[in-house]
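Dear Dr. V.,

Thank you for agreeing to look over these. As mentioned in my earlier message, I'm a first-year student in the group and I'm still getting used to reading structure tokens, so any feedback on how I've presented them would be very welcome. I ran two proteins. I've put each sequence directly above its structure. The first is here:
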Amino acid sequence: MTIHTDRLSDPAVRAFVGAVNAGDRASLLGLLTPDATMADDGSDRDLADWIDREIFSSHGHLDVDSESRDGRSLVAGYRNDTWGEMRTKWSFTVEDDGRISRFETGQA
């Protein structure tokens, strides 16, 4: 059973998942620090290129199965038009101002 986005514990992660699922690029970018970074399957990626390719142009969607680390780590079903559906893990670094400075994702 998935966790509804509104019930995710961490406000920044909740907003991130909501923005991904709504296809809301502006909201997602507003959640990130100016120097935010990310990694996919253990390799650092260009954040702007990755979110365009893996989320927005391919209609990415997250269905969260579980959370840990006070809501800053997720296991989720992720799907997009390029790769289909896969089980993924997500980890977020959230700064004191509530913005995300890093996220890491990969297959779970």
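The second protein is here, in the same arrangement:
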Amino acid sequence: MSQVEVRRHLGIVGDRYFAQPAHRDASVTIMAVESLPLGVNPSVDLRQTRRNILLRGVDIDSYIGWVIELDNGNGPVALGVNRAARPCAWMDAVIGPGAQRALRGKGGVRCTPLSNGVIQVGKARFRVVEQLISGNAASRRRHS
């Protein structure tokens, strides 16, 4: 898939969790490419990790509690980074034995989309916007 359409508070159009009330605060998952368990399986990619977006050069696991933006040139898509995406035992089945352990603490994050937009494969601008307070964005601190 070369691009996805993101809808505010609903998720990624066409995803199995789109508009599901139980998953609204976790409807988009993001992971750092550097965290892929290549030592377990050198051919592992986004499909096996069950994550939606793979970023290069960003320690996304360190942004829990922040609002971030991704912009491929189509306008920024804001995402509230809510919590860690903890790897499950299924990772050992689809990636290989030891994958769940290899991904502990770096399995990515679960996010709430805070704006509508399109995210496509390729270079994107990553920006930290503001800190989250009790699940709601508040303009406490700004970063670029």
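From my reading of the second output: Confidence is low (pLDDT under 50) at residues 135-144. The first helix runs from residue 46 to 49. Does that match how you would interpret it?

Kind regards,
E.
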